[in-house]
Write a structure and sequence with these properties.
alpha/beta, TIM Barrel, 8-stranded parallel beta barrel, two-stranded antiparallel ribbon, 12 strands, about 30% helix, globular, disordered C terminus, binds zinc ion
């Protein structure tokens, strides 16, 4: 638990349009300017999606490069997190393009730990896709921003850690209130947090009108928050006023301060999460349970004689939990 509050702001997402709200930043310049406002208001991490010239979602590295450069120019210290979402783009090649960037490189990238339905379409994340994205992030030194919409996704993180596919540092966004997944109740959030592996820095996000409640619960519980127009357009439940990203950040800063929690600067966020000290823990192949050959680009494994299997996980799973 940390007293400082890490605010992760998801500025754009894949869904909001300029027709829905004038506040959603779409171009690299708009995204960078909004990131600066949010940084000034107290955000430590910026979660980025790219849009093309028509405002439609794109996976193109060239657009992400412009965005990352523009944000870095306006906010020299904010933590850069890129989306590798499967909501629209379904191939590994598309989803991993952004992970190739180096100037600047994303420090974190989203990794949804399972498949789910959004209100109108599925987000498919097969075991192979999760493994391939996780390994690519490891290879590039990018820390995954887990996205968990269900208890089962959190349970899966234990498996991924045991098999070396997720390595410290660990950061998890628990997303509540999306139709068809965990609803935004205190019981669900506390169950999700209780199911996390040890040593995970966690944040809660709420979709739509659940954003404020999810953020407030997380602040009270000692967790961190994700806010922003990706998840919610409206400042109030009655939907009388559209919000800007910076206004959302200002509001969680107020709740945090009222609870004795100052916003974490980007540098403090890095220290809390452990972003500057990626673990050299060994990587194990999920099929063979054998240690991977160091530096092998193809992920080749050592032979059984060369590599003992990983020790059983210290944190036991399988404790009966109440169903929802
Ligand atoms: Zn996103």
């Amino acid at each position: 638990m940390s007293d400082k509050l890490i605010i992760n702001v998801a500025l754009t997402g894949m869904v909001p349009t300029r027709e829905q709200t004038p506040h959603v930043p779409l171009t690299p310049a708009e995204i960078a300017e909004e990131a600066r406002r949010c940084r000034d208001a107290g955000a430590g991490i910026v979660h980025l999606h790219a849009r093309d010239a028509e405002g439609r979602p794109t996976y193109r590295r060239s657009v992400y490069r412009e965005i990352l450069r523009a944000v870095r120019a306006k906010c020299p210290d904010i933590v850069l997190c890129a989306s590798a979402s499967g909501r629209i783009f379904t191939s590994f090649e598309e989803r991993s393009e952004v992970l190739e960037l180096t100037d600047p490189a994303p420090e974190m990238a989203s990794l949804t730990l399972g498949s789910l339905n959004f209100a109108n379409e599925p987000s498919v994340n097969s075991p192979k896709m999760i493994r391939d994205l996780a390994l690519k992030m490891q290879e590039r030194g990018i820390v995954p921003e887990w996205e968990c919409f269900e208890l089962g996704m959190i349970e899966y993180s234990h498996y991924l850690i045991r098999h070396g596919l997720l390595r410290p540092p660990h950061y998890c966004n628990i997303l509540l209130g999306s139709l068809g997944t965990l609803s935004a109740t205190p019981h669900n959030l506390s169950s999700a947090v209780a199911a996390l592996p040890p040593g995970v820095t966690w944040a809660a996000a709420g979709v739509g009108r659940h954003q404020f409640a999810a953020n407030s619960m997380a602040i009270a519980m000692g967790g961190h928050v994700r806010v922003g127009l990706e998840d919610n357009l409206w400042y109030d439940d009655a939907r009388t006023r559209l919000a800007s990203n910076a206004e959302f950040v200002e509001r969680v800063v107020q709740i945090g301060r009222a609870s004795g929690r100052e916003p974490a600067t980007p540098g403090e966020a890095r220290r809390i999460i452990g972003l500057t000290t990626p673990s050299p823990a060994p990587s194990f192949c999920p099929e063979t349970n054998l240690r991977r050959r160091a530096g092998a680009a193809d992920g080749a494994c050592l032979t059984p004689a060369e590599s003992p299997p990983p020790a059983p996980s210290a944190h036991r799973r399988g404790t009966p939990r109440r169903s929802h």
